[in-house]
């Protein structure tokens, strides 16, 4: 499951981001609202240091609203700026810009007090793959008035996007690696699509997902696939039932577990089975060393 992130890659990514952060006033840390703990980089606080940052919970349209609220309170209680986003539809964008400008305003006021001329606030987005960084940047590009040209210090080809009155956003996000060594987290990353489908054992992930749906969301499962009660305790057997309901059969009437599994995974990821939040603030709180 860990093929894409060698220690060398991580060191390089970290070095590049640290270099860019020198130019940045505010960091936007993008997390997946379905897994705010599991989608956080393991050393994010080390990378960001003292720099002000806004935690942005993205994909709220795919999460459970009640748990998103709890996560928001959790971050607020820790004195973080936090916003809820749906970068696909653009929901929450204004709020994000407002929060970034607000916390950057404090910093600019300090600079002004030292006699430094007022200037636009510079922000950059950090997050693990697939969390929605490009979607967010495209959204903000849509509302941008000017794309400012290349400036010294920024890698060639990178630009500042002028968003709103006083905000400039680096048009290239910092790509962070996810937490790699915890199998429970790896499962959540795979199930939500943060880890590419070809680098994990799909069968295992799907069976575990089916089990999770049975244990914690049985009503949705029963309704969606019109399943008879009681649900089998065995995950494969349950997947077999779903396969039968969806007509997933190979020639000769052999159950196509693979096809049924992909249907469940896709419907889980796309919201057809409802919203899911797999990390709970109460449970994950102790592990939240990074935020
Ligand atoms: N439902 C939903 N999908 C999103 C949201 N933000 C991004 N996506 C989708 O998530 C996938 C990964 O997004 P992308 O911006 O490429 O992520 P990146 O790897 O961090 O740049 C794409 O299929 C997006 O359409 C969101 O808020 N809601
Ligand atoms: Mg991207």
Automatic annotation (TrEMBL):
GO cellular component, one term: cytoplasm
Domain CP-type G: from-to ranges: 13-178
Short name of one Pfam family: MMR_HSR1
Molecular-function GO terms, alphabetical: GTP binding; GTPase activity
Location(s), subcellular: Cytoplasm
Main location as per UniProt: cytoplasm
PANTHER family: MITOCHONDRIAL RIBOSOME-ASSOCIATED GTPASE 1
Family: Belongs to the TRAFAC class YlqF/YawG GTPase family. MTG1 subfamily.
UniProt protein name: Ribosome biogenesis GTPase A
Organism, as annotated: Methylomusa anaerophila
């Amino acid at each position: 499951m860990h093929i894409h992130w060698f220690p060398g890659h991580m060191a390089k990514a970290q070095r590049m981001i640290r270099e860019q952060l020198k130019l940045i006033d505010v960091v936007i840390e993008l997390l997946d609202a379905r897994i705010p703990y599991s989608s956080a980089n393991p050393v994010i606080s080390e990378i960001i240091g003292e720099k002000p940052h806004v935690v942005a919970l993205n994909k709220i349209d795919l999460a459970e609203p009640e748990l998103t609220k709890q996560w928001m309170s959790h971050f607020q209680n820790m004195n973080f700026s936090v916003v809820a986003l749906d970068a696909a539809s653009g929901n929450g964008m204004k709020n994000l810009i407002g929060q970034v400008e607000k916390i950057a305003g404090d910093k600019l006021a300090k600079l002004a007090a030292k006699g430094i001329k007022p200037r636009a606030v510079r922000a950059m987005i950090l997050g693990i793959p697939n969390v929605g960084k490009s979607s967010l940047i495209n959204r903000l590009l849509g509302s941008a008035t000017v794309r400012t040209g290349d400036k010294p210090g920024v890698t060639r080809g990178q630009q500042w996007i002028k968003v709103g009155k006083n905000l400039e956003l680096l048009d290239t996000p910092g790509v962070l690696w996810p937490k790699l060594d915890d199998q429970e987290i790896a499962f959540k990353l795979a199930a939500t699509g943060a880890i590419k489908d070809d680098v994990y054992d799909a069968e295992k992930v799907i069976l575990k997902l089916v089990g999770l749906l049975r244990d914690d969301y049985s009503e949705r499962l029963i309704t969606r696939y019109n399943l008879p009660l009681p649900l089998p305790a065995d995950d494969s057997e349950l997947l077999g039932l779903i396969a039968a309901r969806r007509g997933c059969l190979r020639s000769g009437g052999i159950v196509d577990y693979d096809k049924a599994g992909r249907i469940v995974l896709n419907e889980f990821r796309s919201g057809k089975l409802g919203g899911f939040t797999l990390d709970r603030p109460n449970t994950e709180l102790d592990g939240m060393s990074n935020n």
